[in-house]
Amino acid sequence: MADLLTPDELEARLRHVGETRYHHLHPFQLRLQSGACSRGEIEAWALNRYLYQACIPQKDAAILARMEDAQMRRDWRQRIIDHDGEREGEGGIAKWLKLTDDLGLDREAVVSGRLALPATKFAVNAYLSFVKDKSLLEAIASSLTELFSPMVIKTRVSGMLANYDFITPETLAYFTARPVQAKRDSDFALAYVKENAKTPEQQQAAIGALEFKCSMLWAMLDALEHAYLYAQPWPDAFVPADAPAKREAAE
User: Which residues contact 180 (CB under 8 A, 6 or more apart)?
Assistant: First the structure.
């Protein structure tokens, strides 16, 4: 990218990344929200996705530690509170565990991550490394997937409630507050990127950071789709109760 974009042109490029690369387009996501997933596939999604949810306050703490401006740190630390809560049993991570509990998953197995797919672990570790190793601009830009999450949440929640009788509004409580939080957080991050990406190289780095984050989320769903729909899980990974019946039916 040789030419410097205006801030609005940069925003348009960033939004185009989401329109074409965000995981709302992934086949597994489309199956999840349309009622085509088995209960076991939903269990596997929730268990694996927990590792990503749990890493969010860790990556936000890593970003916060690199901020020199006190007001930026005050603004950013709300993200950590949103996920960790102020005390035990509060916050987004606790609400995600409500989802896995309601699905009948063993909490220790979920929290430990020992049954997650290798690709899930690789993806989460890559994200944490990215925000630690890249520039602060790129680390913040990678969070801009939150520009697109409210639309996915609305479709996911309505689709899951309509199509799965074992899913209740309480089960999906994690998603209740996320659209408002994501809008607040993405407004902050977008303003920062538009103001601080001042050269073509910096602008391209910001776009590349968002592309990386989208690819990380896509790779997690690729792994789920392959393991639980077309092949079988890694030997040490979670195996749903309905998996043997599905394989016999396929044969």
Answer: none
For 8-18, what is each residue's pLDDT tens digit? 999 999 999 99
- CA–CA gap between residue 71 and residue 61 (Å, rounded): 15
pLDDT value for 237: 98
Tell me which of 156 and 245 has the higher pLDDT.
156
What domains are there in the chain, each with its CATH number?
7-236 (1.20.910.10)
Encode burial over 30-58: b for 16+ CB neighbours within 10 A, e otherwise. ebbbeeebbbbbbbbbbbbbbbbbbbbbb
Q: In this structure, what token pair is assigned to residue 213?
A: 């984050």
* Burial readout 199-225 (b: 16 or more C-beta within 10 A, e: otherwise): eeebbbbbbbbbbbbbebbbbbbbbbb
Q: CA 21 to CA 222: how far, in whole Å?
A: 13
**How does pLDDT run across 191-200, given as a tens digit for each residue?**
999 999 999 9
At 244 the pLDDT is 58
Give residue for tokens 């490029």: 13
Q: Which two tokens stand for residue 107?
A: 């909490």
Closest CA to 246 of 8, 57, 60, 43: 43
Please give the Cα distance from 139 to 210 (Å, whole number): 9
Close Cβ partners of 75 (under 8 Å, ≥ 6 residues apart):
188
